[in-house]
Specification:
The structure is a homodimer of 361-residue chains.
Chain A (H helix, E strand, L loop, with lengths): L11 E4 L1 H14 L4 H16 L7 H13 L10 E5 L3 E9 L1 H19 L1 E9 L7 H8 L2 E8 L20 E5 L7 E5 L6 H10 L8 E2 L19 E2 L10 H17 L14 E8 H4 L2 H16 L15 H13 L1 E4 H14 L7
Parallel strand pairs in A: 3-4
Antiparallel strand pairs in A: 1-11, 2-3, 4-10, 5-6, 5-10, 6-7, 8-9
Helix pairs in contact in A: 1-2, 2-4, 4-5
Chain lengths: 361, 361
């Protein structure tokens, strides 16, 4: 993440991953979620926080999700059903489960299929927020596979190139692949210029938005650096920003995500169908294509070549997707995760209301 | 494509797809390529020209490819070998075949596997230029499947974000999906700001390059509109252009392409391995996931919603990936393909040298 999205130094409180995980799991269970469901969701959210992807960790997500359990938008006790199945594919009805509960299970199913048949994919419909796509492909990496994930949402956030009506969600996408000695490759991005959650983070950090990040209500890209407008007063742009700068590529990839999740799962277009979201999880067995050892050695060659390459003038180093996240993971695993003090105060107040012990600091 | 890449009106000569195909096939055969190989390569190149993707048609490609047959860089009589196979996957050694010959066969194999098992993927190593990725996924669309293709090259063209040493090729990627009444979705892009071939087209059309499209030799993005620099005096930028505008997303997707083609095929990183390129072709049976009729109806809903949405101020209409290409396909199928007069002159001269009849106009 760019520095402008990070928590300002003066507002940071460091909490160990163990402590925040333990409390997060308790809060999910307080909403009626099963032990496994609470563990899955906690692993996804704290996994994101550990990798420095706090836009998709507990800070923005948890209170929102708990509110959705309270309002019956999410089902804490889902009965997940298989809608269709082939040797390599499964389509699941998530019965209103949050994505972070069903996602790790779905990716596990895709991995099992890939172990048997070379590739596996699981499509999930009738499910809630996935908290980004980055966590799930890493499950495949643990098994020497390439992991991949698309997710679609109800839409209505992101403009098409040349358009003024927001149609897609931020439709994130991720791929991950293992290396031998180098940290794994993990490409995990929103198909918008900026994830919606990151725009919301700026309200807490006070950072400005850069030129070409969002558009006016009439679809015109805003090409100045601005304060974050009020919700409802702007639209998200697909990544690229303007057509001349390649926003048709961002919108096109967002459409691929929409098709592979909302359409392939049978849910229908996010904008015109009444559903909360759907996902696509895929695993590719490296062994089905080539020698795993050779693959990982070649990954090391590639990734090392990037990291050791000469930076552009005025830059310090060159990295690949997942490299900085891995550094952050190691650092935060040791030092704790830096949360904004308001987030910790929320945890304390919310736990106190429920009578749950909270000894974060 | 942006207007600046198109052939200027005064230089256009319209040739029917049949005539240019017939001659192109003859020229491939004159290089020793088999009937099937010549037909495959011709279908790919003229297919691109018909869709208006002339950056990847005969204009730039054919003389280059014929030169490579002459210099023994491409093998006109490849003996294609299966290196590894699983129920859903095959890895092929292309024996130096041009990508446009082996690509249509490889995608056909992926489709057959997807018909049997739900998904299929074919990885190809030791192969030449694929002429973009767009043609192949459309083969899957014909069979009511989702098609997908990555291709990797020898690299050394595209900078990483913050970098000054070009590492990746332009690593294009494509997905296609069928609709019912609407033209199919076809997302087909280079992971650079601009395809290398399009930069070369500007030398013929005289168009300028836009801000953020390429970088100086030290890695600094050029943020002015400029004449196309001489070959060797610039580097390509990943799409997004600058980090602030999301070039890490472009570079990350380029890396995914590199991993799924050059690394997964066993060829090794384009830049550090001595090979011409490798590819990844995948087909997903829609029927394995959901009802095909419902999928296509939902595609119509989505695609119609995009096309009928209100344009941004100062724009005339909103489209999705593949929509304009389909319009162009219909138009060019009727009116002929507009080639630059220099291209037609090359066809005439080259055919004459070989004693091949050429009655294009």
């Amino acid at each position: 993440m760019l520095d402008r999205f990070k928590v300002p130094e003066k507002d940071k409180i460091y909490i160990s991953a163990e402590k925040i995980s333990e409390l997060t799991e308790k809060l999910f269970k307080s909403a009626g979620v099963s032990d496994e469901g609470a563990r899955n969701s906690t692993n996804v959210l704290i996994g994101n926080d550990l990798r420095g992807v706090e836009s998709h960790g507990v800070s923005n997500g948890l209170r929102l999700y708990l509110g959705r359990y309270s309002s019956d938008s999410y089902n804490p006790k889902p009965v997940i059903k298989v809608l269709r199945e082939s040797p390599t594919t499964t389509t699941l009805d998530g019965d209103g489960a949050i994505g972070t509960e069903i996602g790790p299970m779905a990716m596990e199913m895709a991995i099992e299929k890939a172990e048997k048949h070379g590739m596996g994919a699981v499509s999930v419909t009738n499910t809630g927020h996935l908290a980004g796509c980055g966590y799930y492909p890493l499950q495949a990496v643990e098994k020497d596979m390439i992991g991949h994930c698309f997710t679609g949402s109800p839409g209505g956030q992101t403009l098409p190139t040349w358009g003024s009506e927001p149609i897609l969600g931020t439709n994130p996408v991720a791929w991950a692949a293992p290396a031998d000695k180098m940290p794994p490759f993990l490409f995990d991005v929103a198909t918008t210029q900026v994830a919606a959650n990151k725009i919301e983070l700026t309200r807490r950090t006070g950072a400005k938005l850069l030129p070409g990040w969002i558009a006016k209500k009439d679809g015109t890209p805003i090409l100045d650096e601005i304060e974050t407008p009020q919700k409802g007063n702007y639209h998200l742009l697909p990544f690229g920003g303007t057509r001349e700068n390649g926003s048709h590529k961002g919108f096109g990839l967002g459409m691929v995500g929409e098709i592979m999740s909302n359409i392939l799962s049978g849910a229908g277009p996010g904008l015109t169908s009444n559903h909360q979201g759907s996902d696509f999880f895929a695993a590719y067995s490296i062994d089905a294509f080539t020698d795993v050892k050779k693959f990982k050695e070649n990954m090391d060659l590639l990734l090392n070549r990037v990291v050791k390459s000469k930076p552009a003038t005025n830059y310090e180093r060159v990295v690949y997707a997942g490299y900085l996240e891995n550094e952050e993971f190691i650092k935060r695993s040791k030092e704790g995760i830096p949360y904004h003090k308001e987030v910790i105060e929320w945890f304390e107040n919310y736990s106190s209301e429920l009578g749950i012990e909270c000894n974060l600091r």
